[in-house]
Amino acid sequence: MNFENIELGVAPINWTNDDMPELGAENSFEKCIDEMQLSGFTGCEVGNKFPREIPVLKEALAQRGLQICNQWNSYELTTKSLIENRKNFVKLLDFLEEMGAKVIGGGEVGNSCQGQVNVPVFEGKGLLKTESDWHTFTYGLNELGKIARDRGLKLAFHHHMGTCIQTEAETDRLMQETDPENIFLNYDCGHFYFAGEDPVACLQKYISRTAHIHLKDIRPNILKRVHDEKMSFLNAVRDGVFTVPGDEEGCIDFQALFQIIRQSNYKGWLVVEAEQDPAKANPLEYALKANKYIRGLMA
Fold it and tell me: 103-104 and 154-158 as β-strands: parallel, antiparallel, unpaired?
């Protein structure tokens, strides 16, 4: 196949960080979407500076030829009731449906250390410790996935550093214990590499159940420091562990990843989601670099 059923998006977290709002605090919503358009993307995810008034947001995006393709949902199935999770999930579904998105993303944050600046990301990661923990988690996720499916959206779960679904083994179990009609994967090559996994092998394994793809690269020298200095996820991001595809400082084999995508039936978005400190990595410069590189791989 070719890439005619695939569109390119970019995440606003490259301009303003949702978990550390001080990173990119100087970048306005208008600057963010202007530069998304300038760098050649046609879609985006939702950031903390995006207006929540649907007509206002639709008009601003339409003027720039942009489409909302996904938004992070913070699942708290390990710490809150399914009723509480369902309430927040449906509220976001309502918004995404209005915006024309087909995917609802996000990961489990209830027992995660991803947002804790003083907790080492590897040593403090969330865990599902018992069979009961796993059952509660996967049952709840399945129930939310049914709601999304019935409304024409796909729940694309994001494996993420610091959470209970971080490794390939944890992702395997998640996939095995959830209904393939209800639960899909938001594949992220950067998070798999960060976790010590082979992102190429993981994409080959999960591509048939992947509904959304995040593209980012890893700076291996920073990743080594994360291990050596027992850094938190937030400090790793602040210090530049992530970068965009096409950056010479990265190390992931994107040619191999794109060969898998080319040979698959994947339809949907490829989203550059490579959070960095905008003061160190100019978002427009890096977005342009990523777009050019990815389009070259898709040629």
Answer: parallel
Cβ neighbours for 192, distance < 8 A, ≥ 6 positions apart: 159, 168, 198, 199, 202
Given pLDDT bands bounded at 50, 70 and 90, which one contains residue 1? low
- 6-298: CATH topology is TIM Barrel (3.20.20)
pLDDT in tens, 256-277: 999 999 999 999 999 999 999 9
Per-residue model confidence as pLDDT tens digits over 169-187 = 999 999 999 999 999 999 9
Q: Which two tokens stand for residue 227?
A: 């291990």
**18 pLDDT more than 60:** yes
- The share of the chain scoring above pLDDT 90, in percent, equals 99
pTM value? 0.98
Indicate the average pLDDT of the chain. 97
Q: Mind listing the pLDDT tens digit for each residue in 41-64?
A: 999 999 999 999 999 999 999 999
SS (H, E, C) the chain: CCCCCEEEEECHHHCCCCCCCCCCCCCCHHHHHHHHHHCCCCEEECCCCCCCCHHHHHHHHHCCCCEEEECCCCECCCCCCHHHHHHHHHHHHHHHHHCCCCEECCCECCCCCCCCCCCCCCCCCCCCCCHHHHHHHHHHHHHHHHHHHHCCCEEEEECCCCCCCCCHHHHHHHHHCCCCCCEEEEEEHHHHHHCCCCHHHHHHHHHHHEEEEEECEECHHHHHHHHHCCCCHHHHHHCCCEECCCCCCCCCCHHHHHHHHHCCCCCEEEEECCCCCCCCCCHHHHHHHHHHHHHHHHC
Contact 70, 271 (CB under 8 A): yes
Return the domain boundaries, the chain: 6-298
Distances (CA, A) of 161 to 3, 30, 52, 71, 288: 29, 30, 28, 18, 26
